[in-house]
Structures are given as structure tokens and as C-alpha cells.
Amino acid sequence: SSHLQKKRRAATARRQHLKSAMLQLAVSEIEKEAAAKEVEKQNYLAEHCPPLSLPGSMQELQDLCKKLHAKIESVDEERYDTEVKLQKTTKELEDLSQKLFDLRGKFKRPPLRRVRMSADAMLRALLGSKHKVCMDLRANLKQVKKEDTEKEKDLRDVGDWRKNIEEKSGMEGRKKMFEAGE
To answer: Is the pTM of this model over 0.70?
Structure first.
């Protein structure tokens, strides 16, 4: 069994080594990405925001302010358009992921086990301490007597109650009831 333990230890050590190697790789990739982003940012700023040189005369200063305001407006519009595009894309992504979720049928039904449980036990489980009534199902069954079935047969012979109601409803029914009353 010591041979098996050595094998397990070796596998665990290898797994740990691989994990740390992957983490180091990930860290270096993240650092490279951050450096690339910084360079990209500097290039963008150099291209779009040249260093500010303030002119001497009042007129030149006012012209510069107007240019800057125009630039701010165009950048603001661009930002707004980008935000709208982002919102639209985010909504599409949400819809697609919802469709994926629905298609995959995320909710798998768990395998149900058969449980033998009396009605009392079920009520106790559902209602907890509130459950006082004893449910002996057989005790609550109706006793059927011969006379009851005779009564039901008599009632059946009377006919469908809906027909009787229909006959008595409306003016025709009132007329019949009036004639029968006389």
C-alpha cells in the first residue's frame, strides 16, 4: 500500500506544480496585457490630445476655447453613441444567455425516491406542531347504506337539473309556472 501512497503523493505534487505554473503564466499574461493597454492609452492620448500651448492674445484664447468646446461636444456624442451600443449589446447578450439557459433545460428533475408515509406523518411533516387532527382515513369513509342508493336512483329519475332550470328561466318558464299555479 506504501507504493500506492507514493504514487498518490507524486500525482498530487505534479498537480500542485502544474497549478502553480499555470498561475505564474496567468500573472505574466495579465501584466503583459496591462502594459499593452497602457501603451495603447499613451498613443491614443498623443494622437487625440496634443500638448496644450496657450496663445498670447485674447482673440486666440477665445478661438482655442471654442475649438475645445466643439471637441468636447463631439467626444460627448461619441461617448453617448458608444454607451447606447454597449447597452444594446449587453441586452442581446442577456437575451442569448437566457435562450441558452432555456435550451439547456437547466432544471433537471432530481430522482425521486419512494417514501412510505402515513397521512398522519405527511400532515405532521407539512404542518409541524400545528397538526392535531388524527387522520384515520378509513374512519372518515362514508358508510353506504342500501336506502341511500335508492334515494340517489329516485333523484336520477327526476332528470337533469339543468333542463329544469332552462325550462323555468325566461318568459316561457314564468308563463308555465303561472299556468301551473292556476
So the answer is: no
Give the CA-trace dihedral at 127, 130, 133, 137, to 10 degrees.
Answer: 10
- pLDDT tens across 22-66, in order? 999 999 999 999 999 999 999 998 888 878 778 888 998 899 899
Question: What is the residue-wise DSSP string for 58-116?
Answer: HHHHHHHHHHHHHHHHHHHHHHHHHHHHHHHHHHHHHHHHHHHHHHHT--PPPPPPP--
Question: What's the burial of 120, exposed, middle or buried (CB within 10 Å: 0-12/13-18/19+)?
Answer: middle
